[in-house]
Specification:
Elements (H helix, E strand, L loop, with lengths): L1 H13 L2 E5 L6 H16 L3 E5 L6 H7 L15 E5 L19 E5 L10 E4 L6 H11 L6 H14 L10 H12 L5 H7 L5 H13 L1 E3 L2 E6 L1 H7 L9 H5 L7 E9 L2 E8 L6 H6 L3 E2 L3 E7 L5 H15 L4
Parallel strand pairs: 1-2, 1-3, 3-4, 4-5, 7-8
Antiparallel strand pairs: 6-7, 8-9, 9-11, 10-11
Helix pairs in contact: 2-4, 2-5, 3-7, 4-5, 5-6
């Protein structure tokens, strides 16, 4: 792995302008690893932009701030492309930038099946992509200031759910310790991410708890376009449904289906020990971690109900007695 890191560092140090991408519907790890790399490169005097045309969740905006990403992308303005925290081409804003023939780097802690760059650092033993970005910066002796350390810590903490998820390991705590020593500020993050909830978020939680259903020990909730209109909410407001549902004692697998756009459906899995769901998500066109994964299905003839049936059928193939 050191060989890959050395090549990546050489490419980063040689580049003058870097475009950084993460996956669609970016979570805190995707945003934190993107901004952590961006801030570190900016401090080196390089032009580095986080490219994301999507609107951030309100929670992410409250913590990271507004205008943190470039909405419009022109590849002629950059001489290096970097993807973080994204294993699939379907969730990449500009997948054509990544191949063996483009000046590109892919950094990921998922089992990466599709998205490949000229240089790749894939390490599935790490609990967050922020850890990989930190490792690269540390190995390259690139300065990590307080601002950079803070966003990297936020992504690490969020992706491990404050170090309680099954992907947490000793490296998670070690990197967190190093980031804290580098000045990572945790109070604001903890208050925004773990200790605050808006009226809209409370209404969405109420919707979830009024509409979830069980099929055996599979818990699920469906969200249509009409549901979002009724709640005056967007797809991003429903990004944590599966995490809520897996907390039920009876749940072994939880999933949600959200109709983000008409006939564009996002599914998300969370599961407990002994019920990995990554391969199920891959069969449905998605990917992610063993116990936390997602994807999307586009079908003009589908509905949240038909997509739910498709997901249930795929789960039953793997776990017929669940």
């Amino acid at each position: 792995m050191m060989k890959e890191i050395k090549k990546i560092l050489k490419a980063l140090k040689r580049a003058k302008s870097v475009a950084i991408f993460s996956h669609s519907d970016p979570d805190f790890d995707a945003i934190g690893s993107s901004l952590g790399l961006k801030y570190a490169l900016n401090n080196m005097g390089k032009k580095a932009d986080y490219i994301c045309s999507e609107q951030m969740s309100q929670t992410a905006t409250n913590f990271f701030g507004e205008n943190i990403s470039e909405k419009h992308f022109n590849e002629k303005n950059y001489d290096l492309f970097v993807s973080v925290d994204n294993p699939t081409t379907t969730r990449c804003q500009n997948p054509e930038c990544f191949s063996q023939n483009t000046p590109s780097i892919v950094i990921d802690h998922h089992k990466n099946l599709e998205l490949k760059g000229k240089l790749n650092y894939i390490n599935t033993t790490r609990s967050s992509c922020c850890e990989l970005v930190f490792e690269i910066l540390e190995k390259g002796k690139i300065k990590i200031d307080e601002k950079t350390a803070t966003v990297l810590y936020a992504g690490l903490s969020a992706d491990t759910n404050s170090f309680i998820n099954s992907n947490t390991n000793s490296d998670s705590f070690l990197v967190a310790q190093k980031l804290l020593k580098l000045g990572a500020q945790t109070t604001k993050f903890n208050e925004i991410f773990y200790r605050s909830i808006s009226k809209k978020e409370m209404e969405i939680k109420k919707f979830v708890y009024n509409n979830f259903k069980f099929n055996g020990s599979i818990c699920y909730c469906l969200v249509s376009q009409q549901d979002m209109k009724n709640l005056k909410a967007g797809a991003k407001d429903f990004s944590s449904i599966s995490s809520q549902l897996i907390s039920f004692a009876k749940s072994n697998i939880a999933f949600s289906v959200v109709e983000k756009q008409p006939k564009e459906f996002y599914f998300s899995f969370r599961s407990k020990t002994n019920y990995p769901t990554r391969e199920i998500a891959q069969n449905l066109g998605g990917g992610g971690h063993e116990y936390a994964c997602a994807g999307k299905i586009c079908d003009e003839n589908a509905s949240v109900e038909s997509v739910k049936n498709l997901v249930l059928k795929e789960i039953k193939k793997f776990y017929p007695k669940i």
